[in-house]
Amino acid sequence: MSVTAVLGCLWGDEGKAKIVDALAVRADAIIRFQGGSNAGHTIIKDGEKYVFHLVPSGMLYPEKHCFLGAGTVIDPIMLLEEMKALQDRGLSFEGRFFIDPRATMVLPLHKELDSKREDSDGQTKIGTTRRGIGPTYADRASRIALQIIDLIDPERLKSRLERIYAFHGRDTANIDKLTDELLKKGEMLKPYFVQVPYVLDQFYREGRDLLFEGAQGTLLDVGFGTYPFVTSSYTSAGGISAGSGFPPNKIDRILGVYKAYTTRVGEGPFPTELDNEIGNRIRKQGNEYGAATGRPRRCGWFDGVAARFTAMINGITDGAITLLDVLSGFDTLNICVGYCIEGISTREMPFNAEDLNHAQPIYIEMKGWHEDITGIRDFESLPPNAKKYIEKLEEVIGIRFTVISVGADRKQTIYRT
User: Fold this and answer.
1) Which residues are tagged catalytic?
2) Which terminus of the chain has fewer CB atoms gathered within 10 Å of its CB, N or C?
3) What is the pTM of this model?
4) DSSP secondary structure letter of residue 374
């Protein structure tokens, strides 16, 4: 029996889905505990591409159980569309996909509010996916949001819709139509409702293996990320229990996922960003475009200061490094090991985005490699400079990489005991 959590430890898009997919072969249950359809997980299986937004990526294994915890925010319309697209490709949800009824509902209203905020003058531009995630979490904190369980109670659904639309100063004339539409979605989702904490507790007592799948990355955590340029949920280790109802003292392993370089989508500080030909080359070789939005990602050298911070606050037990193959062909590679802020050197992550925005990275230079590593399956067979690069990252962060990804396919993975 084991309980493992996989967390992104930069600004998201670290390749968590592939790592979850690789580890899911030994898991009985895969659990999403936060976020919504703003997440984009891409998996390549036998040459076929699968994109997940809200459904746990463990669904690719036909015998696994997959859960959406109470900490997630669910757009019932988008969820059903995603489910149908996967069902059309042969994936079965019957008897192995479950939703906690406490999860919060994303409404069309929330998407409107999200877009309005992003387009408003005088507001800090976050660069959200405009899928209503932030406004939904805000309404949950204000105790006016709807829960997924409301989808199967006509009177309660209508009254709560009227309340939330009135709260936001919106016309309630079309509430009857929206109520009818959502009730139909509720009938389709009702068979998947379970109390997730009870099921996970039962699985644990039976000695089954559990795998928690994080969305986004720690540097987007609403509490410890680069606020206000963050997501609206707790993406760090503390969010696992808060979003699933599974106790923290029963988690054995917290695997931190890091890219071999750094990327960021949307606005916000990014000290190691390469707004030049090198950055463009990394973007092209790594196909760095958002799975949920298609937006080009900002690319830069590996940020060891940020990585060390996220390893610390998450209690990372070991790490996974992804997209190492993207760096093949570079003569030299840089690793940020400190910042210089207003003439003062530091190895600490600043607590505010303004200071981070002015941080000048302090680099160490490493020799690159030119060999194709996509077919390598053991650490010792990697080019010497690739091994040195990984070992230096381990030294800088203070963790050991036990999983090394050298390609998009689940088979292109190196495991170290």
Assistant:
1) 13, 41
2) C
3) 0.93
4) T
